[in-house]
Structures are given as structure tokens and as C-alpha cells.
Fold:
Amino acid sequence: MSSSDIIEDLRSLPVIRGYYLVVGGGKIGASFLEHARKHSLPLVIVLDKDRNAPASSGTEIIKDASALCKLLEGKLASPLEKESSEMYFYCAGLDVVPFILSFGIPEYIIPAIPCHMAAYLMKEYLNCMNRDDQTVTETCILPEDEDMMKLFDKFTSRFPENIRAGLYPAQGIAMLSYARPGEMCPDGCPGPEKFCPNFRREKPKTITNYLRDMCPWIKGWVFESYQMKPGIGAMKGADMKQYLLEMFEYTHSSDAYEDKTEDMIATNEIFFIATACNCHGVVNLFRICARNGTTAKLKWTCHELI
Structure:
């Protein structure tokens, strides 16, 4: 299948109102199911590798891939009934999500696993879509890699020091937060934009906007977390569809493989994926590589981050 065919298939996928996909069936996943029952959300599918996860209780268990396919084909073929509320559980991990999304994109995707789900899901999806000789991998920076350490330092230095909650170059990850070490935000906090009422702290800019302001210097995508209920956020399926299209087109762009100058460090193979709300955020750096592990030569440079 050609790149244009893949893009056309993705563009044709509907975003289905009333459909919620929960990745993780532990405490957060089970809590969201309570919320879904209370508010009669039409269709909720929960994924977890543990078939005995708490969220499996009180749901209809999808036995195998064939049953999952039949369910998705049947439920997503027509508008969902708002008066009913159906809950399903399927024993699987992140790797099954691209298959699930191929039937239709949920209105909301709820991350309920202990990792940066948006980043790893998008990587999984891009590598599933990429049929040629390139792949997307995490940017793991070793201390002896001076050029990449310089890039990571330039990238993270654009965030104010007071919101740099954790910097992990070995994993290509930065954690951002207005909360300080030892502070715990209450579940019911609405996360106002300009001022933290819990710790009496000014917030001149939201974490989401700090991350979005990075995009002119380095390519990136920021998923905004929308509060479903106190303590549980979600990504919009419409954002996921748009970002997937943009990422796929970007990773296949001819411009992405042009050196700017020979004496500058080619870093346009680096891009970031972030998830954030007003108060907190996490960002992962990724890179485009050939299937044999060599890095694509691209045109942005760490000099442009200065």
C-alpha cells in the first residue's frame, strides 16, 4: 500500500461520538467505568494485558480477536444510541490499538497506564503504518553523545526552571509541572490557567502553551488532556486523527531528508510528542531512523534552537 493510500484510509476514518477507548483496566480504568455508567456513555471498550484487571468486573468480556472485530464492525457501523450504555473488556496491550482504530476513532481515548501513552501509541501506530525502510524510535541520549546532549539541553532550557520537574536525557523525556517536589494536587482541582489556588502560585502560561511554543524551533505535537472527571484526563480522538495524518506526512516528507548545511548538526530527524494540561506535562523526543538503525539526515539543527 502506498503512502497516499494510507493517508486516504486514515482521512476516511470517522471519529465516533459516544465511543470511549480506555487503555488500562486498573484503578483509573475502573474509576472511569463508574463515571461512564453514571452518565450513560454509549460505548466504552477497556484494554488491559491482565484479564483479571479491576475494570474487567461488570463488563462484557471480548473473548478473542475475531469477537473484537465483529463487535467493532457491528457497533461502529451506525450512530451509537445515547440512551444505552455498553461496557466491554478486551485482554490486550497498546499494540492492538492501531487495529482497533482502523474501524473508527473514539471520541475520547483515556490513558490509564503508567507511561506516556500518547507518545508510545503514536510511535506504535506510525511504525504500523510505515511499510518502507524507516522507523520511529525513542531518542536515547548517552552522556558521551555531546551533540545530542547539547540538543536536549537547548530544548529543555526553553522551559522556565521552576516547571522542569524532571529531565531524563537517557530516555529523551522531560517532565514539566507547576507542582514542586512533595506537593500533591487534589483530584478535584479544575486546574485554572493563571493561578494555582492549592499552592497559591502564579502561572504566567499553561504547560500546554509552553510546549506548543516549542513548535517553531523543533517539530512537535501536543495532546491536550481534557478532564473527564476529577483525576482522569483524556485525549480527543479528533486530535489523534489530525496528528497521525500530520506525523505520517511529516515522516514521509521529502523536505525532511535534506541537509541544511554540512557544518551543522542535522537534527530534523528529531521530533517530540507531548501530553499536557494547564499544570502538568510530559514530553518524549523521537527520531526517524532507517530500518537498519542509521539516522536519517535532515535539515533542522540544534543551532536553530538557540
Remarks:
- Residues 264 and 281 are 30 Å apart (CA to CA).
